[in-house]
TrEMBL record:
Catalytic reactions on record: Hydrolyzes free adenine bases from 7,8-dihydro-8-oxoguanine:adenine mismatched double-stranded DNA, leaving an apurinic site
Family the UniProt entry places it in: Belongs to the Nth/MutY family.
Entry-linked SMART domains: ENDO3c
EC class of the enzyme, as a word: hydrolase
Catalytic activity, EC: 3.2.2.31
Protein name from the UniProt record: Adenine DNA glycosylase
Length: 352
DNA sequence: AATTCGGGGAA
DNA sequence: TTCCCAGAATT
């Protein structure tokens, strides 16, 4: 792209953004900490999903110090339902580092930002440009899609090494005068006009600079390989109550999937067949309940069946467990599939 | 370089 | 159903 085209691209993109850019809660603040929170929440998560979480989060954890001092469980509870919970844990750890090393003020230095937990290339670029006005690219899925079309880049955006190409083209394009608006304009363009499917090219401010549109091949971009299929695991979820009517729950390990979350005990089964899971066969009283739920993660599928037993079965040792009343569930972070179980239980209690 | 991390929105 | 989402950390 020639220099005059670059200037035209910037001018038309930013003019469009001024008129059509989204009014979002995290765009109404200049507080780098709030922008940081928003950027982490927005990773792999749509804007409308994030909004209520963002509002609650910055209300309860209004300062880096407040987040640094909070119990991790309360942070996870705040994040409950949003997914990718290591984001929350890494954000808190990163904030603790900022409080200790930088007196609670986010550094405006790329190298220092990248050393913080939970801040990778995208988030560093977003913070440098949006919070500190530096001309750094912030390459996310939106930007790769837009640039793949504008320049007809055939690199597979699912591959890690492809990102370098997009950094280079954005680095040449980025408006030095207003990198914050430039990066956010690209994101809005990707979300509103240059959509994954059926892009709205006639209303695109940069269609005259877009190679794919000129060739009418915009639907061919971006090139993206498909992920492999998710594997299925079957579990029996165990409901067991003590004499006070409290339910047994357990805490997942502090690493891996849903780390630190609480759940009803889960026993992995061979299949979800009508046969009783092997772990239950010695019990006198086992009732299969009318709750069957398929939960799809990105890389994993849980096939869940609910059982009620009258005594604690042999559960693995070394796991934190406790008896908790239904009314106390809200104190603990639960993954969504177990929130469904809780809903089911509450409905049951209401109808009996 | 590939895999592991959640959950929901949209067509 | 499938794809995608303001990705980062781990292997």
């Amino acid at each position: 792209m020639h220099q005059n085209e670059i200037i035209a691209f910037n001018h038309e993109l930013l003019a469009w953004f001024q008129q059509n850019g989204r009014d979002l809660p995290w765009r109404r603040t200049k507080n780098p900490y709030y922008i940081w929170v928003s950027e982490v929440m927005l990773q792999q998560t749509q804007v409308d999903t994030v909004k209520p979480y963002y509002d609650r989060f910055i209300t309860d954890f209004a300062t880096p110090e407040a987040l640094a001092d909070a119990p991790e469980q309360s942070v996870l509870k705040m994040w409950e339902g949003l997914g990718y919970y290591s984001r929350a844990r890494n954000l808190q750890q990163g904030v603790r580092e900022v409080v200790e090393k930088y007196d609670g003020k986010l550094p405006d230095d790329k190298k220092k930002l990248l050393e913080l937990h939970g801040i990778g290339p995208y988030t560093a670029g977003a913070l440098l440009s949006i919070a500190f006005g530096q001309p750094e690219p912030a390459i996310d899925g939106n930007v790769m899609r837009v640039m793949s079309r504008v320049f007809m880049i055939d690199a597979d955006i699912a591959k890690a090494k492809s990102k370098k190409q997009f950094e280079e083209v954005v680095g040449k394009l980025i408006a030095e005068a207003n990198p914050s608006a430039f990066n956010q304009a690209l994101m809005d363009l990707g979300a509103m006009i240059c959509r994954p499917k059926r892009p709205d090219c006639p209303n695109c401010p940069v269609r005259r600079q877009c190679k794919a549109y000129s060739a009418r091949v915009q639907e061919k971009y971006p090139v993206k390989s498909r992920p492999k299929k998710a594997t299925v695991r079957c579990y029996a979820i165990v409901l067991v109550q003590d004499q006070l009517g409290r339910y047994l729950i357990e805490q997942r390990t502090d690493s891996g999937l849903l780390a630190g979350f609480w759940q009803f005990p889960m026993v992995e089964c061979e299949t979800n067949s009508d046969l009783l899971p092997a772990a239950f066969r010695k019990l006198a009283s086992v009732e299969r309940l009318d709750f069957h739920y398929i939960h799809r993660f990105s890389h994993l599928v849980w096939d869940l069946t609910l059982y009620r037993v009258d005594q604690a079965i042999d559960l693995p040792a070394g796991v934190a467990r406790k008896w908790v009343a239904v009314d106390e569930f809200e104190r603990y972070p639960f993954p969504v599939p177990h929130l469904k179980v809780i809903d089911w239980l509450k409905n049951l209690r209401m109808n009996t």
